[in-house]
Amino acid sequence: MSNGSNKPWIQPEWPGKDAVKILITHREGGVSQPPYDCLNLGAHVGDDPESVAANRLILGTFLPSDPIWLNQTHGTTVFDADHWVPYGPSGYTEPPAADAAIATLPNFVLSIMTADCLPVLLASTDGQVIGAAHAGWRGLSAGILEATVSAMRRKVAKDDLEIQAYLGPAIGPMAFQVGEEVRAIFVLHDHHSDAAFKACDEPGKFMADIYQLAKLRLQAVGVTSIEGGCECTFQNERFYSYRRDRITGRMASLIWKSNS
C-alpha cells in the first residue's frame, strides 16, 4: 500500500486503478476525541455526531461525491446504488440496510465501514461494474461475497464477467479466535475451509484466517484475481479494532468508477 502525503487514507496498489479508484481510511486525520480518535466515520458507535459529521466532511474533500453509507446488518442483502437518490420525496431518509452495494454509474462512491470485519472491494476487469461488501464471519459464511458477485454479473448480464477483488484491513489470523461452532459452519460449506483454522491451546478454540476464508469463497465463484489481505486491524493500532478496544470508531473502505 502507498499512503498519500498528509491524507487520511491509504491507497492500495491494484490492477485497473485508472478506471476504478479505491481508498481505505485509518484512524488518523480527524477530529474525534478518545476513545474514537481520530477519523471515526461511524455514526452508530457513540461518538459525538458533530465530530462524525466533521470527519465525513474531511474525507469528502478527497472524493468525487458523498459516500453511500450502508446500515450494515451482517446479512447478505446487496444494494443497487445506481438507484440511490439521497434527497427529495423519493429519496432515502435512512442508509439502506445492506451489507454490500454495486454500481455502474461513474463517481458513485460505495463504502463499507469496519473495525475488524473484512471489507472486500470488487471491480469487473472491463470497468463496467463495481462492488463493495462487508464480510464479517457471519456475512461471509452466509454468502455475502457470492451474492455480491452474482449481483454484479446480473447487473451487466454477463455470467462469465471477470472480476478482481481487493481485501482490505481486517483482524488477522494471529488474533482472530473463534469457537468450534464457527469452524463447523465454514467446513460444512466447504471442507477446504478447514485449512483456515488452527487449533489453540484452549480446547474448542481456533485461530481463524478470515482472508483465506474469503479467498476460498471468491475463487469458488470464479474470482481469482485477489489482492490485499495483509493488514491486521487488531495488531496495528493505526486501524480501529473492536476486539482490541471494544469502544472504538470505524474506518471506511471505498470504491468508485472514475469519470476520467
Series of H and E elements: EEEHEEEEEHHEEHEEHEHE
Strand order of the largest sheet: 4-5-8-7-9-13
Estimate the helix proportion, in percent: 10-25%
Q: Helix tally?
A: 6
CATH class: Alpha Beta
Q: N-to-C terminal Cα separation, in Å?
A: 23 Å
Query: What average pLDDT do the residues reach?
Result: 92
- Which of globular, elongated, flat, extended, rod-shaped describes the shape? globular
Oligomer: single chain
Which segments are poorly predicted (pLDDT under 50) over 5 or more consecutive residues? 1-5
Cα Rg? 18 Å
Whole-number tally of structural domains:
1
Largest sheet: 6 strands, mixed
Instruction: Bin the strand percentage.
Output: 15-25%
- CATH architecture descriptor: 4-Layer Sandwich
CATH topology: CNF1/YfiH-like putative cysteine hydrolases
Key phrases:
alpha+beta, CNF1/YfiH-like putative cysteine hydrolases, 6-stranded mixed β-sheet, 260 residues, 5-stranded antiparallel β-sheet
Write the layout of secondary structure elements.
Elements: E1 2-3, E2 9-11, E3 20-25, H1 49-60, E4 78-80, E5 100-103, E6 110-114, E7 118-124, E8 130-135, H2 137-142, H3 144-155, E9 163-167, E10 177-179, H4 180-189, E11 197-199, E12 205-208, H5 210-220, E13 225-228, H6 242-245, E14 251-257
Parallel strand pairs: 4-5, 9-13
Antiparallel strand pairs: 1-2, 2-3, 3-14, 5-8, 6-14, 7-8, 7-9, 10-12, 11-12
